Amino acid sequence: MGCVFSLPEDRRDAAERAPTTRETSFIEKMKKTGKNIIVFYGSQTGTAEEFANRLSKDAQRYGMKGMAADPEEYDMGELSRLSEIENSLAIFCMATYGEGDPTDNAQDFYDWLQENDDEDLSGLNYTVFALGNKTYEHYNAMGKYVDKRLEELRAKRIFDLGLGDDDGNLEEDFISWREQFWPAICEHFGVEALGDDSSIRQYELQEHTDINMNKVYTGEIGRLKSFEVQKPPFDSKNPFLAPVTVNRRLNKAGDRHLMHLELDITGSKIRYESGDHVAVFPTNDSGLVNKLGHILGVDLDVVISLNNLDDESNKKHPFPCPTTYRTALTHYLDITHPPRTNVLYELAQYASDPKDQENMRKMASSSPEGKALYQSWVLDASRNILAILEDMPTLRPPIDHLCELMPRLQARYYSIASSSKVHPNSIHICAVVVEYKTKTGRMNKGVATNWLKNKLVSDNGHKSTVPMYIRKSQFRLPFKATNPVIMIGPGTGIAPFMGFIQERGWLKEQGKEVGETVMYFGCRHKNEDYLYQEELEEAEKNGVLTQLNVAFSRDQEQKVYVQHLLKNNKEDLWKLIHTENAHIYVCGDARNMAKDVQTTFHEIAEEMGGMVRTQATDYIKKLMTKGRYSQDVWS
Predict the structure, then answer these.
(1) Binding site for FMN: which residues?
(2) pTM, full prediction
(3) 20 to 30 Å CA-CA from 492: which of 293, 322, 438, 535?
(4) Which residue stretches, if any, does this entry annotate as coiled coil (predicted)?
């Protein structure tokens, strides 16, 4: 325990501080620091938090003072007191997660909004920017709800709800909204809209020449040394290092690499249910990190801290500090996604060629040609920060400013491919390695899947480990084992169903009466990527699977997908759904597959249930609200 006390209080990571010392009153904090704008974020993967930080930085440009805030850290019941602060405004950057749900950190706020009908927020000025994805059923549900609910509680909407679509161009949606938002705010408060264009640093660099290396972070997420001395409970702030006990290739041929991994959770006290997600914290490719160090001419092993210039901020550092540049670029920063426009804007000043400066600023503007340039040169070309530096030789920013601007590297979620009834001490993952050639001829590799692929069971006699925790989901087998289940999961969408099948098999062994268990799987070629073929055929032979339907899309002239097989079995499916209370589960690609499958169920309801299209869509919608049609999809 000694080391904890030797750190001065203000240097301790916010996550470590005892909740008693933390100020849960954002009103008091705003008064104390002279802030008039607070930007709350509901963020699962860090984007909404990024946007909130950008907006609070903007406030400074317009001569106001803003702070970004995590609703989980504050007493949201204080919103009604915001009128005590002159010219005050609350901005909400709210992402939607899963099936129209709030993000984990906004769950309590969401519950509070739902429960407090008599709350009077008439002194509250607010606006909402929502982050979502159009391929999902409940597009931007959380942002829309907050916007509508605050109005119901008599708060005053100062500017229209912004809708960001990550299936299109989320960055562009945000820029366009923000471009109109600030002038409106300035007008509302009677402030002159003179945006200051200079770059504003949020953190200052401190180099540690003489430091005890035991005080330096080496990749831990929360507590210093938490990877050496592991203490439950394990969660997103304190992941468990699970040894990899199996890592095998699933497909027999073809140029893709599909893999099955097993993580050992013995002794961790971690519990999971079939249908939950496992979150893993990957690290960046060391080759990529070294190239960044080389191109910027930096010794990556210097020990540094980036300290917030605002002493009152809850966020003392952008990532755990003190640490080295190498650790930050390897464990803490996202260096593979194409950078957002604010990064280009802030780095533009470091380009020695005025033309490059102009182009970088143009890409960050909302002018049509600027947007088009960003779309083509950055997004369509999939240029990450290294590619941008390579293709813009006059741009050589200081590495500390680069590290300040890069987003945090996020945990990746995988549907668990096992049942805790059968494997209480093991979590199975099924994933496909992502790699593709970009328009500039570079090879881009998915961070997490390539890192997992290289997690060999024994690495020079050492066990490979994966930092992980469990995220509970709503994707659950029916409470009554006698309910039939219809599982539709092509490709790696099979993952949660391996858990479901194991669990139904276990229930059968316990002598329970188990309803029909029907599987629809799809892949490209029977002799190439038929995942878990042996296990599935075995389950069918044992009667655990009462039906196994597999679509091989490319084994014949015309493509055959899971939805074609569903259509062929419409009589049987309709009987299961309409008269036997079956539960339907869909897992995998959201953009095409999940949509097509849903449309197929609409058609089946029309044809078999004698409904018109609107009745059929309502029928399926009702199944969803009753929890009988569940989706675990991604895009």
Answers:
(1) 43-48, 95-98, 131-140, 166
(2) 0.93
(3) 438
(4) none
